[in-house]
Structures are given as C-alpha cells and as structure tokens.
Amino acid sequence: MSSKFALKKTERTLTVFNYLAGSGEYIGSGDAFIPAGTGLPAYATHISPPETPAGMVALFINDAWQTVVDNRGKTAWHKETGQPHIISEPGEVHAGLTLESPRSAFDIWDGTQWVKDQDAERQSIIARNEEQKAALMKEASAQIAILEDAQTLGIATEDELKLLTSWKLYRVKLNRIAMGALPDTELPTASV
Q1: How far apart are CA 168 and CA 32, in angstroms?
Q2: Deepest of 6, 10, 71, 175, by most Cβ within 10 A of its Cβ?
Q3: CB neighbours of 96 closer than 8 A, spacing ≥ 6?
C-alpha cells in the first residue's frame, strides 16, 4: 500500500493499478471499492504507471513507478562457462551474463566479447584425432592377428599373405603419424 495515500472518512470507488508482490511488476488496473477508514488493497496504488515501450516493463518500487528493460525469456550466456541461461526476471542482465552468444564451443569471454581459444580448439582436435588413430590401430591389429594366425598355422592363402603385408604396412604408417604435430593431420586409409 502506498504510504502517500490518505485515508478518507467516507467510502469510495477509485481506479487502482495492481502490481506483483515480489517484483512490483504492473499487472493491470481496475476499480476498487474502498470502505471508509481503510486504505488501498495490498499490491495496488492510485498512481498510474508510465507508458512502457516494447522491451520495457513498469515496476512499482519504493512508492514510485520505474521503467526497466525486460529481457525475460531471452537467452543469456554465463561469461565464465559459456552455458546458456534463460532470463526470468525483469531488469538489466546480471553482470556475470551476456546476451551475446558464443560462436563456438571454444569461445571464452575476454571482458568485452567472446573470442575463440585457439589452443583449446587445437587440443580438442588433436584428442579427437588420437582417439580415431587408436581405433584404427586396434582394427589393424585385430586384422593382423587373424592373418598371422593363418600364417603361423601354415594355412594362409596367397591373398591372405598379401593382406597381412598390406595391414602391417598400414599399421606402421599409422603409427608414424605424430598427432600432436598438426591438429588437421590426415590419417591414412587402409588400402586392403
């Protein structure tokens, strides 16, 4: 209830402007019957709110209307983690958030904008390539083991012996690649 609203000795009906209890956000107006000797209903004022342009909202704070920016429903990003956050309260964006979205998974906030962390991106590509190389080495080793079994048992066909040589050559070439040298290293394909 506005402290500036004077109590009257007679009953009356007047237009009141309602606002939310927690935020003070304007939610509408209506006529209210005010019995003699009482004041305005809770969360209502007789002061009309200002016109609010798009993207703004009127809040009743400290017995006065204030117009503040309304970013509710927009996505902001945590400057520390880059994680998205849906804004749910009216007002300015929290200092730890920004409405500017990162452009990649490797962006970091430099204090004014997102910039790509080239080293983190490079390390990620190298790690992905290392995983791919390990999977290819495992596949080659499995093929070699089967073909060597046939060779050891003396039952390898001419084609199997050629395959064994091809797989061994492929595994040696694959093993010689230093994945940390360049992030865009191309892995050889098995020519078997």
Answers
A1: 90
A2: 71
A3: 78, 79, 80
| Residue whose C-alpha is closest to residue 75's, from 51, 98, 45, 48 | 98
What stretch of H or E contains 61?
Answer: strand 56-61
Give the angle 86-91-95 at the CA atoms, nearest 5°. Answer: 70
Count of residues in the chain: 192
Beta bridge partners, 76, equal 85
| Residue 176 structure tokens | 């010689």
Amino acid at the residue 55:
G
Task: Kindly list the distances between the CA atom of residue 102 and the CA atoms of 25, 74, 99, 122, 123, in Å, as whole numbers in the listed order.
Answer: 31, 15, 10, 18, 19
Q: Residues near 70 by Cβ (< 8 Å), separated by ≥ 6?
A: 55, 56, 57, 90
CB atoms near residue 42 (< 10 Å): 8
Q: What string of pLDDT tens digits covers the 192 residues of the chain?
A: 444 566 678 889 999 999 999 899 999 999 999 998 888 999 999 999 999 999 999 999 999 999 999 999 999 999 999 999 999 999 999 999 999 999 999 999 999 999 999 999 988 888 888 898 999 999 999 999 999 999 999 999 999 999 999 999 999 999 988 876 555 666 677 766
Please identify which residue in the block is written with the tokens 């191309």. Answer: 186
